[in-house]
Each structure stands twice: as structure tokens, then as C-alpha cells.
Amino acid sequence: MELFMLYVKEREYLLGVIEDLVKFRLIDCTGGLLALRCGPERLLMSTFGAAFRRWRLALEDFIVTDYAGNVIERHQHAAPASTLIALEIFRLFPLCHAVLHTHAEYSLAFASLDRAVPPAAHLMQTLGEVPCLRAEDQRIKEEYLRNPYPVSVPPAMNYRPEIVAVSQRILPQIKEKLGHRKDELEKHGLAFTTYQHGVTVFARNMDEAFNNLARVEASARTYIYGSLTPGRERWEARERA
């Protein structure tokens, strides 16, 4: 029997995006999220454990939710751990129609050190410096499990309140660091990293988000390689000037 599902074309499109993310080494098997705005009331997202399945996904490996995290359509898996962050981005930035989160290797190096990704290459001048949002994931989870308190877990997610506790530390920082830049989405996307956790890019569409992710990675890579080359002291001095 043929399986009925919403947004088949969008699912097929996201499968193609995932294939390209893997091809260009912009995503790996340690985590990630793709989310699309599908009209005024619904979102389409990749599901929990997609990275563990090595991003070999099928059409049913996506979930449709509303903007409160309620399930509209689910075939196999629950919504991913980053659901609350995606929901907050869509709420804060009306022009955003796509959210992309990965553990891309070069931007992760900056996130692991709690450092912003600098605009080290010309292609990053529009995005500017990519801030790092601070939340010590493991410590927060351990503290929550020792002393639990009520949190609201979206119905689309598995019941993991300790993950929600971590997300709650990140949400206000999104508004603080990027809320004043929402009008920039008319021209390009925005990005941030999360301490020890990876990069999140959001934009008017997924193609733009993909391109902006590639720019963030290229800038992080350029800065890392540049810092290892002769003459880096002069370069760093110019950056500080």
C-alpha cells in the first residue's frame, strides 16, 4: 500500500541537499538538522538519529510539526534534539524559511574554543563575524538530572527534558546576538555556533543556507590555515587594527 505523506517534493529536495552536504563535507555522522518552513502553520524537519543512520534517509525520515512543536505527520522517528532552537529561529525571524545545523569540522574548531568565526575571507564580508553562543551541554544535563525541574518538551520530540534544559540556555542568546540583524535576511542569511556543538545557519531558503554554511566553513578554514603560515603575526596585527 502506498504511504501517504505531506510535502513529498520538499522531502525529495532535502534528500538532495543532504547528499550534497555529505559530498562537500559540510555535515558528518555526529549530528545535524534540516528544517523548512512549509506555509504559515507547518515545518518539515529531519528526524532524531538521522546522523546515526549516516544520513542515508528516505522520504519517511522527516517529520511535519506546527510552530509549537506539535506533530502534524510522523512516520518513523521523533523530532531532533535541536527542535527548540529551530522553532525559536522561525519565530524570531519571519523572513527565515530554512534552518541548517551541522557539526562541520572547521567551524566546530572555533566552537570548541568558545570563539567567534572571523570573516577571514572576502566571501564572509556580508555575514560578518559568526558569534558563539555559550551553553556547557554536559554540565547542564548533569545538573538537570541531579536536580530536575519542570520543562516543556515539545510533543514532537522524544521525552528528553535535559536536552530542553540546554536549549533554554541558548534561546535568549539567539535574540541577544542576532535579533537586531533580522532585516539582513532580506539580502543574506545569518549564522552562529554553539559552544562545543557546531554551526547553525538560517536563510530565506535552503540553497542560500547551504551557500552560507559553505562560506562559514571556508572562512574558518582560511583563518586556521592562515594562522599556521609564515607572516601570520603581521596578518593578526592587521586584524586587530
Task: Walk me through what this model shows.
It is built from seven helices and eight strands. It is α+β, with helices and mostly antiparallel strands and 241 residues long. It has a single domain, classed as Class II aldolase/adducin N-terminal domain (L-fuculose-1-phosphate Aldolase, 3-Layer(aba) Sandwich). It has an eight-stranded mixed β-sheet with strand order 4-3-2-1-5-8-7-6, sandwiched between helices. A hairpin with a 5-residue loop joins strand 3 and strand 4.
Quick synopsis:
The protein has 241 residues and is an alpha+beta fold. Helix content is 39%, strand content 15%.
Which terms would index this structure?
241 residues, alpha+beta, L-fuculose-1-phosphate Aldolase, eight-stranded mixed β-sheet
CATH topology: L-fuculose-1-phosphate Aldolase
Quaternary structure annotation? single chain
- Fraction of residues in helices? 25-40%
Radius of gyration: 18 Å
Major sheet strand order = 4-3-2-1-5-8-7-6
**Mean pLDDT rating:** 93
Characterize the largest beta sheet: strand count, sense, and whether it forms a barrel. Answer: 8 strands, mixed
CATH homology-level superfamily: Class II aldolase/adducin N-terminal domain
Question: What structural category characterises the helix and strand content?
Answer: alpha+beta
Give the number of DSSP strands: 8
Number of helical segments with 4 or more residues: 7
| Element string (H = helix, E = strand) | HEEEEHEHEHHEEHH
The amount of beta strand, in percent, is 5-15%
